[in-house]
């Protein structure tokens, strides 16, 4: 089995960016990279990765809104965004799935409170 080794400093820019995010808590704006650039994700893949990570660990309503906006901007449909949650369900578990579903639905513009209201005539 062969192993590849990286040259000193080869990943220093990426490492510096990660450390900056960890220290400051603020992610730098990423520029779109042309397709086929080695080591770079396209915008759609980046949006899917971000959405998957957010669904797995949770976050604020603003974080969900940003991830959904980014995903829609790359051409993903609301149905495909929900599919990401469904694909992750067995991995993230029920304890994460329920709050993630609520946050994701809200970010997609679904009126959760209205959906949970009972019609007046159902209890009569």
Protein architecture, described:
This protein has helices spanning 12-24, 43-57, 61-73, 78-92, 94-107, 112-116. With 124 residues, the chain is mainly alpha-helical. The protein has a domain at 42-114. Helix 2 packs across helix 4 (78-92), helix 3 crosses helix 5 and helix 4 runs antiparallel to helix 5 (94-107). The longest helix is centred in the middle third of the chain and has 15 residues, at 43-57. It is elongated and about 65 Å long. It starts with 11 loop residues before the first helix and ends in an 8-residue tail after the last helix. The mean pLDDT is 81.
Q: Any descriptors?
A:
mainly alpha, 124 residues
DSSP summary, beta strand count:
0
Uncertain stretches of 5 or more adjacent residues: none
Largest sheet: none
Helix content: 55-70%
Termini distance?
72 Å
Give the topology string: H per helix, E per strand. Answer: HHHHHH
Topology:
Elements: H1 12-24, H2 43-57, H3 61-73, H4 78-92, H5 94-107, H6 112-116
């Amino acid at each position: 089995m062969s192993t590849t080794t990286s040259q000193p400093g080869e990943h220093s820019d990426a490492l510096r960016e990660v450390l900056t995010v960890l220290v400051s808590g603020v992610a730098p704006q990423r520029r779109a990279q042309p397709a086929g650039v080695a080591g770079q994700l396209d915008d759609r893949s980046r949006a899917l990765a971000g959405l998957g990570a957010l669904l797995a660990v949770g976050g604020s309503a603003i974080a969900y809104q940003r991830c959904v906006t980014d995903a829609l901007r790359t051409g993903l449909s609301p149905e495909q965004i929900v599919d990401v949650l469904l694909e992750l369900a067995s991995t993230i578990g029920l304890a994460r799935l329920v709050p993630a579903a609520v946050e994701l639905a809200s970010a997609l513009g679904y009126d959760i409170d209205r959906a949970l209201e009972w019609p007046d005539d159902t209890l009569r």
